[in-house]
Design brief:
Structural class: mainly alpha
Number of strands: 2
CATH topology of the largest domain: Four Helix Bundle (Hemerythrin (Met), subunit A)
Distance between the termini: 94 Å
CATH class of the largest domain: Mainly Alpha
Shape: flat
Radius of gyration: 34 Å
Order of helices and strands: EEHHHHHHHHH
Strand order of the largest sheet: 1-2
CATH architecture of the largest domain: Up-down Bundle
Length: 244
């Protein structure tokens, strides 16, 4: 708008709780063309900001919808069932290890079927990890220990498909480790694992106390009985070994 001093003035008010909250921007010029150029530039910036906000909101809406479906109980139950089926295939492979190759060294039909199942489960778990990462990206995903464990196990499984010259035993171990992902799917199992993890430090304290008590008694026993029974009390370690 034009002021009394023949200057074109413009004041921009910032939105509450926005990035520039609390700031006031004023533009003043005596040149009408320059004033119109400022207005046009501000309109471009506002339109670009609006499009970015709409794109951001659309991404959040899609992310929220995917997360809602992913965390649904029936989806988590299905993934738990797939993990158990994969573990069953791994047990079958180890159980019938002598029946996986023909006399000429070619794979039997059972081996071919198990290899196809392994490929299917690897692709399925990779897709499931991608959906999990998308729906919880970024901090919610990286701060979740179960998500990091899933990423490690799935990553090693994919690596085992790419690197074909790995020892068979290591490949089977990697496949068997997939069942650990089941602990993150069932809340009751997750609570048990969490409780066991929290009990590690108190158990270590108990072992420390027991070690100190055994050390005290070993010193006392050696001091009193080393001369009369050197075969049992010659040194503290011999007495501790007897206690075992």
């Amino acid at each position: 708008m034009q002021g009394a001093d023949d200057q074109y003035k413009l004041q921009i008010a910032t939105k509450k709780d926005g990035y520039n909250s609390g700031r006031v921007y004023r533009f003043a010029t005596s040149d009408r063309k320059e004033f119109e150029a400022i207005i046009a530039e501000l309109k471009k910036l506002a339109e670009a900001a609006r499009k970015r906000a709409e794109a951001h909101n659309l991404f959040r809406k899609i992310q929220f919808a995917v997360r809602e479906q992913y965390e649904a109980s029936h989806v988590q139950a299905l993934m738990a069932l797939m993990i158990m089926a994969n573990f069953g295939a791994t047990i079958t492979e180890v159980q019938f290890v002598d029946s996986l190759a023909n006399p000429d060294g070619s794979p039997t039909q059972l081996q071919v079927t198990l290899d196809r199942l392994n490929l299917f489960f690897t692709l399925l778990f990779t897709a499931e990890l991608a959906v999990n990462a998308f729906s919880h990206w970024f901090f919610a995903f990286v701060r979740n220990p179960w998500s990091i464990l899933d990423a490690f196990i799935v990553g090693m499984s994919v690596l085992s498909l790419i690197v074909t010259n790995q020892p068979t035993g290591i490949v089977r171990i990697l496949r068997a480790l997939r069942v650990i992902r089941l602990f993150g799917r069932i809340n009751s199992l997750k609570k048990i694992i969490s409780a066991l993890t929290k009990s590690l430090l108190p158990v270590l304290h108990v072992f420390l106390i027991m070690f100190l008590i055994m050390g005290i008694f070993s010193v006392v026993a050696v001091s009193f009985f080393a001369a009369s029974a050197p075969e049992n009390f010659e040194v503290p370690s011999a007495y501790i070994y007897r206690l075992r």
